[in-house]
Amino acid sequence: AVAAAMRLGAFLSALRPALPLLLGLSLGCSLSLLRASWSHSAAEERCLAPGPPAPPARGAAPEAAEGRPGPGHEDFRPRIVPYYRDPNKPYKKVLRTRYIQTELGFHERLFVAVLTSKATLNTLAVAVNKTVAHHFPRLLYFTGLRSAKVPHGMVLVAHGDERPIWLMYETMNYIHQHFGSDYDWFYIMQDDTYAQAEQVKALVTHLSINQDVYLGRAEEFIGGDEQARYCHGGFGYLLSRSLLLKLHPHLDSCRNEILSVRPDEWLGRCIIDFLGITCVSQLQGQHYHTYELAKNTEPEKEEEEEFQAALAVHPVSDMTLMYRLHKQFSRIQLDRVYQEIQDLQMQIRNLTALTPAGEAGVTWPVGINAPFLPKSRFEVISWDYFTEQHLFSCPDGSPKCELSGASKADVSEIIESAVEQLNRRYQPLLRFSKRQLLNGYRRFDPTRGMEYTLDLLLEAATQKGHSHVLAKRVSLVRPLSKVEIIPMPYVTEATRVQLVLPLTVQDLDFVANFLDMFAMNTLDTHDNALLTLLFIYHPYDAQRVGQVDVFAGVKAMVGELEKRYAEVKIPWISVKTEVPSQVKLMDIVSKKHPVDTLFFLASVWTEINMEFLNRCRMNTISNWQVFFPVHFQEFNPALVYRGEQTASSNTDFLRDGHFDRHSFAEACFYNSDYMTARTKLAADILDRDEVLESMEVFDVFLHYSGLHLFRAVEPGLVQKYTLRSCNPRLSEELYHRCVLSNLEGLASRSHLAMALFEQEQANST
Questions:
Q1: Most buried residue among 404, 522, 574, 721 by CB atoms closer than 10 A?
Q2: Nearest to 702 by CA among 626, 760, 592
Q3: Would you place residue 103 in the very low, low, confident or very high pLDDT band (cuts 50, 70, 90)?
Q4: Domain locations along the chain
């Protein structure tokens, strides 16, 4: 008995930690069974109840009456609408919208309207445009002037009537007609108002778009109802899209029936009388803070909390005060951001101490991504060495070049920042001043930004006046900022591409392959592309063209293509020159085509395909961007494979070759853009045509146009290996680039090393 009692005690002691779990499971199962039995009995009673079903309660939606969530319920459920097409009706192609957000019914967030006048259009309105306009996604200025002269960089809508009520009426009509279906929120302000753009944008992100919102600084009507309020126009006010849509049908009645001197009172009375909505200063937990400026106010001395929290400040009497307000609020916002960064860094340090890695897991700088860790030697990011005068990693491949432009400004700024940070850390005990930059290193880490390591020769001065020269190494990081999506004009893939192919006598062996690829990938697929051949005759060959035409074989091939494809015409242009300058050749072609022509300047080694032509169309935007693709150049098979079988193009695509960054032969651009840049070039060089021999089309766009030059690798342009003939009569730079292209196109370093090794082995034996 004693042994049994001991065994029972041991069993209970072992079971004691699991007793709460067992009791919880038992209780949960029991409650589940009881609830299931109650639900089952209630369902049976509902099924067995005689008579028709009871009608839903008054005002309830049918879905809610049937146990499904109604329109006001938060538990939204998707509803699948089955597709049905009437077989008796003819099939009609569905037209898709240009942008997916249009098809899904998305709206832009905020539209801003600024009311201005004749007296303030060139003063306060310009100040608004220079301070806060670029922070808003869309901003328009409205005035009653007729044929007003628009200041640079502003979009102005002139209604032609300077009466304040009429201006407000026409503005509301214009906003509804042109932007009512595109935006969720509409912010109306005057040009004597300073609005904190970022605060206004943050406000609308915290408001629900399903309510009728009339938000601003609420003011009482003079002699009116004490409960009714209108939003003061001087401090700006916010209208929701739903309120604007409901208000628009009543604007004409408001214009005829409501008499008022102030446009903001007129609009407020219109909203109250016809919609029953009054202005509020706070909504959904969000406050619309304002601040009224007194006369002779010094913004730099304003330290009140009400001023710092204000979304809108009024009245702003002149442009200088507007700029001072913008400077002060920018400083306040910057101080807040720095304080938030410090708080976040402190939180990160505190939390990192609790992680398994401990304090060793804190990266520097705190809050910035850790440096990129390469997995192999091919992923190592190299450092670029520089001094205050020279850079030892140059874009053109030369070992040393002068530090200038943006690179020089970058180095100067980073040195000043390093000295400033040292003084901030060690003052007032020490004061540092730079003597010399001994060594500088920088590299771009795509995971965090630009990294710098500086060896500085500094002079450190103490409080007692003693000084000492010392060398100190500092590390700095310029982190990547917020990613910004640059808006681009819309382009389509339906644009016709005009291929231009210059041909010399040295290119005759490759023309047949080019024409075959062009016929297979464009003519057979009915792609919207045309071809123009440019025959470049040497003066000696041009004199003998009557007896022996060096391009007779090419012309015969073109004739065969035109017979095979009856609807296709391939014109050619004959040019006589000793120096085939790319710019001079394009001058001839440009004059023979319309200004809206999309050119693709090709080379005879290019293998045309539909994939690249579509990218040419998409990456070339008229009056905005030109496209210079970097083709993939295959290596010399004699060096790469050395008698072995060539690798399969399917498995080793883009393997045995490189992207030829020295070649600018291929280009996509519009004729109008070329003509504009060429006109500026002609005015610069006057009659010195010999300058054109040292230029390419890329140089024309780079130096004489304000367009974006899109230079990117293009895997759709693959060229077989061939040894190009470099014309020594071209400029030194063009000839040098051609030679480098030939040399780097031979093979990779490993292939060249293996070839040299095999040659030495053969010579030794």
A1: 522
A2: 626
A3: low
A4: 101-328, 384-479, 497-643+654-752
